[in-house]
Amino acid sequence: MSNDILVIAEHLDGRIADISFEMVGKARELAAALGGQVIVLALGSGLQAQAGGFASHTTLYLDDPLLAHYNPQAYQQVIAALAAAHSPRLIMLGYTSIGMDVAAWLSVKTGRPCIAYVNDIAVEQDAIVTRSQLYGGKMSAESATRADSLIVTLMAGAFAADAGRGATPIQPIAAPVPLAGLRTRFTGLLKPEAGDVDITTQEKLVAVGRGVGGEDGVALATELAEALGAVVAASRPVTDAGWLPKTRQVGKSGLTVRPKLYLMLGISGAPEHLEGMKDAELIIAINSDENAPIFNVAHYGATQDLFEVAEALLEAL
Amino acid sequence: MNIVVALKQIPSMADELPLNAQGSNLDFDEVDFVLNEFDEHALEQAVLVKEKSGGAVTALGVDLIEALDDVLYTALAKGADKAIKIVGDFEPGADSHTQAAWLAAVIRDLSPDLVLTGVQAANDLDGQIGPMLAAHLDLPYVGVVTGLEVAQGVAKVHKEFAGGVVADIEVDLPCVAGIQAAAKPPRYAPISKIRQIAKTAQIAEAEAAAAGPDAGVTLRRMAKPVATGRADMLAGDAKQVAAKIIDILTERGLL
Ligand SMILES: Cc1cc2nc3c(=O)[nH]c(=O)nc-3n(C[C@H](O)[C@H](O)[C@H](O)COP(=O)(O)OP(=O)(O)OC[C@H]3O[C@@H](n4cnc5c(N)ncnc54)[C@H](O)[C@@H]3O)c2cc1C
Ligand SMILES: Nc1ncnc2c1ncn2[C@@H]1O[C@H](COP(=O)(O)O)[C@@H](O)[C@H]1O
User: From the CB of residue A257, how many other CB atoms can be counted at a distance below 10 Å?
Assistant: First the structure.
């Protein structure tokens, strides 16, 4: 086992995602403490220039037309092969749609333990100690690993991306496993249609969560939004239930917004929602649960019934 | 089409989450358990596939807290055809690796065409069980799936990425998929129907396989997250809170 750290870069729609740089920045710090090197692995097609932008010690780049878009089985098998070849002390992936497919699979296949949802990681004496978020952000767990090699998936936005940017030239590699005949095949990418409104360009958003209970609650919030000159946005359960269109969803699998006002009604503040709105200039959260994690992020909060507050606001406006 | 859907009960996040005396995990005796919300979607997606392509759905879970029967009866009421619970002498905090091994042993014997899990449950440290099952069973895995159709031995799935971007991916059957959201909102089963089923339906039992090596991770401590900030809490009744919000917005030129 080496003391190196293998970081799996990821890209979407031709662009290397920020999480890749965030991981490399943190990996630099950890590698210094462990006395190892940071090895980035990027799988792509035509991404040579971007892949040359990491502050790594080595950047391995595998170019193949089949890798222009994410392919689950290709990632799993290539990463497993490189993990075997390099025996890294730590393998870092994003807690993203890609990392979530690969990390736990790799854990079982390679016999390395795995820790998900990590938002902090450090070297303590010789152990790797992680902090991860559980229960929708309501609990934080500190764990240490006994094994000499570990896999972690890191939360997007937990570390600064700039620390991971650099100019390490890529080292092209050949596919360590055949990429033909895979059991998973990419067939197309669908981008969100321009919606009724673009919530990313709004100055004021009234965001509703599962706490609004249904379409009546959404109607009340819409009325309030109109009175405030704002637009209605939503958490995932609201769009999954069909109470609002997908184009209104904020968060990990929705849109990222930075409005001047983000007024939240009945949203708990799960990490996946925070990913899309934590940089809003003014966050006001109404949630009847005083332990809701959103109160650790909002600037102002009230533990009131959202319907009563919405109605009182409408009356006063 | 032989479809297996894995269902898991997790502590309800709507409630206070009490810790045990050592602060090393939750006090599982003091929490309410609910079905993981993504599993509602996995079940719905399984039933949708069955309705379109034929076949049978088996609902399966590890009965960690001896309360899985209700979940399984509800699954039967919503369209599952068979229910199996894995029984044994469990700790509710058993790690994902151990549970994946138990589930994989039972699923292997069912020779499924399609295994659906929830994309994740918010309560474990060591990753999700869907990809672990795929690794044990040597099947392909795709997670974060929001819609799945089956035709000619292939599953066509929508897989979500950030920013609302969705990929279409084809996966050869048999496969495992982690469902984030079913193609339609989960259906509702009337209590009367669930009660009726509970009177007549059989839940098969399977013994948990001998435990393999654990996840290799030591949970040192669990705690409420150290707040990096704390909202300024607006006191008073709804009217007073509304008035304060209007003051804040006015002060910032937002009204
Ligand atoms: C891969 C992945 C991607 C995801 N992507 C996203 C994403 O893009 N966006 C997203 O939002 N989520 C996303 N999620 C889901 C996320 O994990 C949470 O489940 C979700 O954010 C919870 O939404 P919520 O806060 O509306 O609901 P809940 O967590 O159920 O919270 C509802 C809140 O309303 C409060 N409430 C209830 N009634 C009232 C009342 N009358 N008055 C005041 N308060 C009340 C409750 O106290 C509670 O805190 C994703 C999950 C996964 C696994
Ligand atoms: N004990 C269990 N019994 C049945 N299914 C499970 C169990 N644990 C996890 N799963 C399945 O795996 C998915 C991911 O859960 P987790 O691995 O806990 O994040 C869940 O949504 C379930 O579908």
Answer: 20
